[in-house]
# Entry
Amino acid sequence: MKDLPNPVPRPAGERAQLERAWQPPRGWRFVFTVNNTDIGLFYLGTALAFFLAAGVLALLLRAQLALPGNTLLAPPAYNQVFTMHGTVMMFLFAVPAVEAMAVYLLPNMLGARDLPFPRLSAYAFWAYAIGGSAFFATLFFGASPDGGWTMYPPLTGKVASPGIGADFWLLGIGFIEISAIAGAVELIVGILMTRTPGMTLARMPVYAWAMLVVGLMIVFAFPAIIAGTALLELERAFDWPFFSAERGGEPLVWQHLFWFFGHPEVYIIFLPAAGLVSMLVPVLARTPLVGERAVVRALAAVGVISFALWAHHMFTAGLAPWSLALASAASLLVVLPSTLQVFAWIGTLARGHLVRNTSAWFVLAFLALFVIGGLTGVMVAVLPFNRHVHDTHFVVAHLHYVLIGGMVFPLFAALYHWLPLVNGQRLCERLGRWVVGLMFVGFNLAFLPMHVSGLLGMPRRVSTYADDPGWFGLNAMNALSSAGAFVLAAGVALCAFDVVRTLRRPRREHGDPWHAATLEWLPSQRYGLRSLPQVDSARPLWTRPSLHQEVPAGAHWLPGSPTGRREALVTRARDAEPRYLMLLPGDGALPLVAAVGTAGFFLLLTLGWTVPAWLCGAAALVAIAIWLWGLDRDGGRATVALGRDRVVPVGGDGAFGHAQAALAVVLAVDASIYLSFLYTHVHLAMAAPTCPPPGAALPAGAASAAALLAWGLAVLGVEHGARGLRQRGVAASWPIVAALLLSIVAFAGHALAQQQAGLDPRRDAWSASVGALLGYDGLHMVWVVAAAAFALARRHAGLLTPRHRVAFDALRWAAHAGAAQAVLTALTVRALPQWLG
Amino acid sequence: MNAVATGMNAALRLEPAAAPGSFLWPAGLPAALDQAVGWTLLIGAVVVTGLVLALLAWAVPGRRRRWRHPAWWTVGAGLVLPGAVLAALQWVNMRDLSRGDALLPRPLVIGVQARAWWWEVRVHPDGDAAPVVLANELRLPVGRTVQLALASDDLIHSLWLPALAGKVDLVPGRIHQLRLRATEAGRWSAPCAEYCGSGHTAMVLQVVAQPAAEFERWLQAQRADAPAPSTVQQAAGRAHFERLRCNACHRVRGHFEPLLAAPAGGPDLTHLASRATLGAGVLRNDVEGLRRWITALQAHKPGARMPAYPDLDPATLDALVAWLGSLD
# Structure
């Protein structure tokens, strides 16, 4: 063990101190844990529970469709059940499951002690678990949404869906939006800034690349649905007619926003699974991945192209020919990165020697199913074919091949592979063969005949079909599908039984049962790895097997907890050179309180219980304020030694740190949401016969100009404050106060300009979209006011210094974002009528 | 589970009046143009699946360690080969987009208005100002190009005529066009393809393509007003129709003009008896079907605007059914 960062044996007590810092809460307080290992398992368990529940709904649907004219579920019940099946599978199972896998696996795979923002993950999990359960429970009260998981208005507007089901849908999605954005922050910052020393970008595991792409995709895709759900709820609650044709609204705006999110969403679900497969195949075949760099580029290519093909869900909606040409070309182009990956996997299998275990069978099943799903995807990208099979059971079959074949089968392969990390016990191989066999046979039995049903003329989302006997009639196809669904379910149930049984066994060391190549298989505890390994290849455990002894002995970096608190090492994004030691928060009630408050606020508001709702909201805000107040401080000492002669500062190095990176992600999300609102305005303005429509007027010029001037002065003020902080080490109070007041003046100016113009968002869709933009301006004012108040309080508490200036950066960037959106809104709203003539 | 429990006592069945048909066995244009694409893609997909599975079977035994050129593999087989196929498919797309309507000139215009949950059809014959208003049945003359003007005034629906053309959405606030030409006589059912709520399943348009001369005869008959009652029972049925305020929503030309204008109104019943089904495909249009529709339509078509009349005495019901059955 020569030339290692730290000498061994380590001093007595070092390990004990590390364990003390990472000690879990005891007894009932265990719900306060924020450790990624616990939260990851809670998260995954909850997501899998929703998978089983939504699977039961699928069985109900298939039972109804088993015979023509069946009377098990009448249309109202059937519509609720299929809406819930789709929504729960997509939003409460698939997205959370891939995030949960990352929360659990990524830190150990990257050699990090934990995720960079443990409390954020805990908050996101609890908000999702509480909100998701309440959403699912609507089924027991007959109050579920029934607009399909795509929720197209006007079907989901107040006229056609007067009940609260649609509101519950919008609410349930709200929680997923929160947890997805939180996930994006964790993924991007965690992957770029907390990798173990030496794990350069070139040595990063493919799975981490996949999750990095997914994190970036969430930043640009989810804002579209955040904006869309906000618009639909504004229409439902306040009668702002964005989607109502009779007042100039456009039903297709929802479809554009939904699918601009919805198609990348499919890849947000699939890319993590592809990343897992790229980790599994080399380990199972005992040879490095063929074309690893090409595979990483393919992942990035999919991420980019997936934003160009949303319109292929709208081929029959009457779009312009050029958009059909573009969307169909992109739909075909996105196939290439996937074929490349498939051939890389097959090539790896050919070069290596496959271990025939259950994981391997799941991977092989995935390959077969994904190829079929991909080919039907190519088929529906061809326009003359699409207009016949669109919205039929052919598409139902296609999407299940891609989602179950492409995501659930890899997830099960991963389950069989990585479950030993939990308590050292493996799932039963003999039962495993049955599980994979039942699932594969059942799946094909269920979904292959559905292609035929679609070609025979069976549309999607119908609760029954006309009697059609014969060997290849609808009766036979549907009977097969229903039988197959139950066989598939039997496989899943068998696996669930085995998972429960295995998790009840006693804990033992997991060792390295598969001779894996990556760091998550090193012995790890609640604090992750004992010492953070110096990595010198993409497959560290293969090129340097001695890591198995060196790392737990503490011979690598940071073998203890020098500050006595939970810590993580922040490294440079490109070459993973150590930068500074990040202090992580301990366990506590704040994330749970904030999550309960958030969930309570939205749930109670949906039910119309206003006062308790606001009490919950206030509780959440207080919890978040306390949580933020404790951040960005010194750890009691300026520097610590990592080992050998490496000394790093504690808490930050004065440069762009993890907190600034998280802020940057949030700003990107904010900008994307804003652009979605702006797109809505532009679309509605261009669809209007005259712009502005009769009765509406452009905002008053003088007040608008004053508002823009106020935003500009606010930016100048915070920039002056930033210079002061940099040069003199203190931020003056007056720029902060000025920014606070000027943002209020700016919003008041905009509101006044609209009031003089007689804005009535209920009059027509154009006015509603102007109202939405004004509302978003108001949101930026609230953001600046809150950030300024917080920064002021920090300053007076002496917590605002050049090294600890996150609170000030948050204010500064909020002011910039507010000013930028105000200028862009003013220009667009004024220039469009000119340009449209 | 409440949602399930509420479903226990209703029975939606669709009348198997005619199969939807398929573009794989087309009976008109443009479906006939899509047929070759359809079969090529289906057979191609089966072949490619077979090839990849064979490749997988070759790969799984493994141990080809002296394999020198994995880059050729991933880039050549994984990019170039599929790239060529996909480029060819995009050529198909571009050809399809540039085809335009030149193929099918001088059309007969038929308006199709989707309603939750039925279809109103308006035939605009050449040089005739007044369109003929029909419900839930679309008739086409074989060999003549038809232009469908598609509109909706409540929800998004989608018209799909599998044997003749693809589907086009009917979106509130827009009018979409679809040109087609039946080349063979036939009878198909055309389901609504875009989910539109509780009546989505029960929204089937009957499509009939018939020889041009037959079509003209039929159109002439449809132009005529409804016949006068020819029996005492039919006359009594007409009186009940008015007493029960059926005419508030339904037009029977020559007898009643509806009090409510569309879209609140219901289907035009002038030539009700000439249609194959009731309620857009849920019941056969015969005596038994009419009785069940009037007394229990909410069980057959949940959410329909028309209320059921379960408490009519048998004589009233018989009279109503007799009159409605005479409107051919």
Q: What stands out?
A: The CA atoms of residues 601 and 615 of chain A lie 8 Å apart. Chain A touches chain B through 99 residues (CB under 8 Å). The mean pLDDT of chain A is 94. Strands of chain A lie at 567-571, 578-583, 639-643, 646-649.
